[in-house]
């Protein structure tokens, strides 16, 4: 690959990339990164829609309570405004804002409801079934951070539902 700035050939290698563009601080991708002598860096992120869908599915399936940034990520993945999301959950949009900004704890019932809503909408759009009932029963009410690490192969194969 040639550098878009200086037109020189860029060196590349597969390495771990901290994917902060997702809005989450715990997502890492194993992907090809191109670097040029001039300082330009290009990260190969194939299938961005499928990748974001894969991240959302990993979040929904995790055993710890959802964090604010994860709630925002799921809402945005569903293409819902805060008012629409709040309406589906039966809460005020201010409550959603407080959850997303980690100003208020979500509670186990609303955590499960967000996961169920996401799963239902995804099933309707993708026409595939996910088994989430057993998984949400085992959610640990303690919020803890987990790293999400996705290899390039999985990024390429992820099928986006929300485009």
What is the C-alpha radius of gyration, as a whole number of Å? Answer: 18 Å
Shape: elongated
- How many distinct beta strands? 4
Report the structural category.
alpha+beta
Beta-strand percentage?
5-15%
Question: What is the CA–CA distance across the termini?
Answer: 28 Å
Instruction: Name the CATH homologous superfamily of the domain at 48-157.
Output: lambda repressor-like DNA-binding domains
Low-confidence stretches: none
CATH topology of the domain at 48-157: 434 Repressor (Amino-terminal Domain)
Concise description?
The protein has helices at 48-61, 68-77, 82-89, 93-100, 108-126, 133-137, 152-157; strands at 11-18, 27-35, 41-43, 148-151. With 163 residues, the protein is α+β, with helices and mostly antiparallel strands. The protein has a domain at 48-157: Orthogonal Bundle (434 Repressor (Amino-terminal Domain)), CATH 1.10.260.
